[in-house]
Description:
Oligomer: single chain
Low-confidence stretches: 1-48, 50-55, 68-77, 93-103
Radius of gyration: 26 Å
Enzyme class: oxidoreductase
Subcellular location: Plastid, Chloroplast stroma
Strand content: 15-25%
Shape: globular
Distance between the termini: 52 Å
CATH topology of the largest domain: Dihydrodipicolinate Reductase, domain 2
GO cellular component, one term: chloroplast stroma
Catalytic activity: D-glucose 6-phosphate + NADP(+) = 6-phospho-D-glucono-1,5-lactone + NADPH + H(+)
Largest sheet: 9 strands, mixed
Number of domains: 3
Family: Belongs to the glucose-6-phosphate dehydrogenase family.
Mean pLDDT: 82
Amino acid sequence: MASLSSSLTYPSGYSVAFSPVNGIRHRSLSFLSASPKGLKADELCVRFQRKFGRSSVIMQDGAIVTNSDSTESSKSSLKGLKEEVLSVLSEEAAKVGSESDGQNQSTVSITVVGASGDLAKKKIFPALFALYYEDCLPEHFTIYGYSRSKMTDVELRNMVSKTLTCRIDKRANCGEKMEEFLKRCFYHSGQYDSQEHFTELDKKLKDHEAGRISNRLFYLSIPPNIFVDAVKCASSSASSVNGWTRVIVEKPFGRDSETSAALTKSLKQYLEEDQIFRIDHYLGKELVENLSVLRFSNLIFEPLWSRQYIRNVQFIFSEDFGTEGRGGYFDHYGIIRDIMQNHLLQILALFAMETPVSLDAEDIRNEKVKVLRSMRPIQMEDVVIGQYKSHTKGGVTYPGYTDDKTVPKDSQTPTFAAAALFIDNARWDGVPFLMKAGKALHTRRAEIRVQFRHVPGNLYNRNTGCDLDNATNELVIRVQPDEAIYLKINNKVPGLGMRLDRSNLNLLYSARYSKEIPDAYERLLLDAIEGERRLFIRSDELDAAWSLFTPLLKEIEEKRRIPEYYPYGSRGPVGAHYLAAKHKVQWGDMSLDQ
């Protein structure tokens, strides 16, 4: 077969080589020499990847690998790939040239609406600083805090500085970086429903933008009942005139199908769908983003990813603390709305989706929606709800949920829920997907557990006298804490006899990778700035998720289902064990070798 390899030398001082991988299935692009004017090859890789919808993948050697359908398509697309690369290179060269002339520069203005709140102080500002610390923010950027509290720029900087931290491996210039970052932070006090106050903010932003192309990102870190007022004012009085305007919206996105649809309709009066970034921070966690990589880039997993080999899948979320004086918000929503309908359901959709056409955001979200629409309505008999009560342990008394002064004494809001869900499609028919989420439990964890079927006619049941049907292979993806992926296998214990035990093939991230894992908000903020929507929730995804849970929530609340009480610090209600047993499942986090 004739070679498809070729190369070109780009006039600006670096060259590119094209070659097929195995001659058929892939094409790769490798950078052979340094790029001009400080544009690093890996930076160009990232920009190339984002420009073409992440359909290309950067390997450790710096190559970009993109999918191709056949030998003929490889031949025909080689020319197209060259043109794509030349286009990117031309853009970058033009950008470098224009920036050196001080013309046509763009700037990003990030406004944190609700800047005095806990989320802004503990998550958003630290994430923005981390991005600045890693040189991920544009050269020209400004951060504005906006809230009703009276505050000066200096007071905002003092407040923000208390929560900033530096990467462990780069602490040498920490203080200097903090000072530089804080100089970019400013504050404007105003009401969330005031056009006048947002107009004043707009004037301040224009002063900092100094005639550059202005791109504006608004992060709504405020209660959902004032989302629409803030969006209306920001859209009409503080939108960018010559760049993009995007709005990040925090959950909850309504309380049910009706209120969620009303919120979406109201937001779309002032914004287009592609301007709305509905954030679920769990989608930004490292192990959740790695889920599709684990499945689609490892041949050993994808063939097993079906009802033929998988017995059940478990999504487990637990916290070892209660509401601790913040029960007012939680009591209005409960654990099902707070955790299951969004975090766990989003992870389930990513786990169960079919292979997308590409890594483009719309292709991935299309597949997630298909999963959600294929799900069987949740039955009340497949659900257990609970609420933690006071418990004394080791001489210490832990308060019950209704002991929280912000919670009504007669509240029946669930602080624990377990449910069995089913996907009625060819891949997953009959496989129970179990969810479990709770507060004030015995440990803090978030994990995905995939329990495989037993080995048919297992030889070692007879020889060893132990029941290996209950010791099947299990893949565990620990999202937090101590991020890890491990596979449980049955293994012979060394010695002359034939004794088996369960062992782990373990990838512990802290041992394998020296780099500190970024916070989920860092990844999601960077994606929002760059216009990458893959990890954000589309409106039809939201509709499908609420359609699944709204009937269940109405039945629980209208019929005033009484939760099963469990002691603070326990493993949760006994009913959760009966639910698992009903579907011939054992919770993976309950075993001795979890």
